[in-house]
Design a protein that fits this description.
homodimer, about 350 residues, alpha/beta, Isopropylmalate Dehydrogenase, 2 domains, 11 helices, globular, binds 3-isopropylmalic acid, EC 1.1.1.85 (chains A, B), leucine biosynthesis (chains A, B), 3-isopropylmalate dehydrogenase (chains A, B), metal-binding (chains A, B), manganese (chains A, B)
Chain lengths: ~350, ~350
């Protein structure tokens, strides 16, 4: 029997509610297999910060490293100054654990309400770079609060960092039936970073002659996402553009209540982290209203990452079947979780 | 009689075609008034660069400065390396002429096809900062083309630059019936720039107690633009976020064929520049297929900026009436222009 050691960061707001359902479905999917899961709960997020002033200590990080994967609910609360938990906890995990592939699939399940009148057959995945770009925290400000203030943000892009994520994206595109890769950037304005991305895609592309490559500026990509999202298969893009595009992608495929993500270290030298794309939604926290589906789908990505394809697929199929039967009646967080458990077990 | 000296940069691709119609409608709107227009054509864009290697010389810029306003078609051609004309001509004009307000109205005219199933009543304006942010060209790269390459892009934000555009946005919000201003940024990640924007909006907001202020992260803003665009009234945001949001805004309100913009220096110390949001579309250039409506609406913004409200409104009304009678039958560039001339004159 194989034991999976799972670090659980339930986090803030609706995080604990959706994570509870995710874990229920995980257990159900592994029942009857020779895989068992042991979980360690990590007390991280707004409460811990208020109590101790800590976001993520070295000891927390070392303990998390001892695990095979991380399931994260949501981080962030209005009572904490903007940026403290995002930079000090969520992004710190992504950076410290070298999660350079931020994987965000978008699929429009049949029957799901979408704001688009004629979405077409939407099934693409965004490979968002996770350890560089404007997210590196290399900005700074001088004369803060005076009329002479200057605040800079620096986007750092390296051949090392771009090449590895582009390679991952090509491999994923190659493994998909349509074999299409779209680079999204803004190389007519951000010429240095943009040209590095472009040259890298061209170079790695020579190793994948079967993969068709195209390019869209980030502004044009948002247009395509609402006028012709079916054109996309795999999108590779930088950290900030990926952040923006994947929220929009979620919106057109049923909302962030359904959008899953994996923060992946493909070499497996560190635990990868799986989390819903949505935030902590403090306005509905504790009311049992949150849709746990995005977390459950993130559990499916987690299992796939660990090579457990059968239970991963069982969960994805259960979600698809559940979604197909939705009629718009609101269901509680646990009702959805129970329904998914029943399908996975049935 | 008042004479308006107009610099005309028709540019590349479909630029000359749509500008020709814009000028026709401009003449029609001013016929019978005591305002006359004299135009100076500037040979700028891909052809000039191929011939001379020049994008925008000091002499060009000085000559343009002698004008009251600029009408620009589109800049960019695949035969020119990415970034050369964008940075060397279009952005150089915006920066050199201190066009710090990049004004982009989005209105869903009745009858216009939109990709959204239930768009609601969409009528907002994006005030995009035009002279700072990641557009400043302060990036650079080392060891280009080697595995050790590092390419940085720097977003520069100053209290001086942010305050003046925020003031402009508040004034615009205050003058509109709904009096609502939304700041869009990403202050949980881009903490230095984001907090400067936030503090500035808070500070200027105290002078506008009637204006309701809210905030959205840029990723969330893209969600709202497809799920509830009617929530927006005035959006103020940085140069890059504004670029992205306004293409998406155009897409949901009938496409970039209808989206107008003004690059404005509110003090009037330099000529402001009016241009369609769309690009040069080289694939359809010379075929008389381009919709000149975005350029015509940009002419309306130009007249409004020059204080000529009646002809500005006549053009906007003509466009609204023309759009209301569209039935999807393709019309040539000149057909649309002629129809708008007829309405403006009639
Ligand atoms: C909370 C925030 C830091 C985060 C990001 O910007 O990456 C979120 O928007 C996401 O997409 O996971
Ligand atoms: C062509 C490009 C430099 C420009 C920009 O990014 O500002 C365009 O996309 C726009 O929105 O006017």
């Amino acid at each position: 029997t194989r034991e999976i050691k799972l670090a659980v960061v339930a986090g803030d707001g609706i995080g604990p509610e959706v994570v509870a359902e995710g874990l229920k479905v995980l257990d159900a999917a592994l029942a009857g297999t020779d895989v068992s899961v042991s979980t360690t709960a990590f007390d991280l997020g707004a409460d811990r910060w208020h109590r101790t002033g800590e976001t993520l200590t070295d000891a927390d990080l070392e303990a998390i490293r001892e695990h095979d994967a991380i399931l994260l609910g949501a981080i962030g609360h209005p009572s904490v100054p903007s940026g403290v938990l995002e930079r000090g906890l969520l992004l710190k995990l992504r950076f410290a654990l070298d999660h350079y592939v931020n994987l965000r699939p978008s699929r429009l399940y049949p029957g799901v309400p979408t704001p688009l009148a004629a979405p077409g057959d939407v099934d693409f995945v965004v490979v968002r770079e996770g350890t560089e770009g404007p997210y590196v925290g290399n900005g700074g400000a001088i004369r803060v609060g005076t009329p002479a203030e200057v605040a800079n943000e620096v986007s750092v892009n390296t051949a090392y960092g771009v090449e590895r994520v582009v390679r991952d994206a090509f491999a994923r595109a190659h493994a998909r039936p349509r074999k299409k890769l779209t680079l999204v950037h803004k190389h007519n304005v951000l010429v240095h970073a943009g040209h590095l991305w472009r040259r890298t895609v061209e170079a790695v592309g020579t190793e994948y002659p079967e993969v068709a490559v195209d390019y869209a500026h980030v502004d044009a990509a948002t247009i395509y996402l609402v006028t012709d999202p079916a054109r996309f298969d795999v999108i590779v893009t930088d950290n900030l553009f990926g952040d923006i595009l994947t929220d929009l992608a979620a919106a057109i495929t049923g909302g962030i209540g359904l959008a899953a993500s994996g923060n992946i270290n493909p070499e497996g030298t560190t635990p990868s982290m799986f989390e819903p794309v949505h935030g902590s939604a403090p306005d509905i926290a504790g009311q049992g209203k949150a849709d746990p589906t995005a977390t459950v789908l993130s559990v499916s990505l987690l299992l796939e990452h660990l090579g457990l394809d059968a239970p991963a697929r069982a969960i994805a199929d259960a979600v698809a079947a559940d979604i197909a039967e939705r009629d718009g009646t609101p269901r509680s967080t646990t009702t959805v979780g129970d329904a998914l458990v029943a399908r996975v077990s049935g």
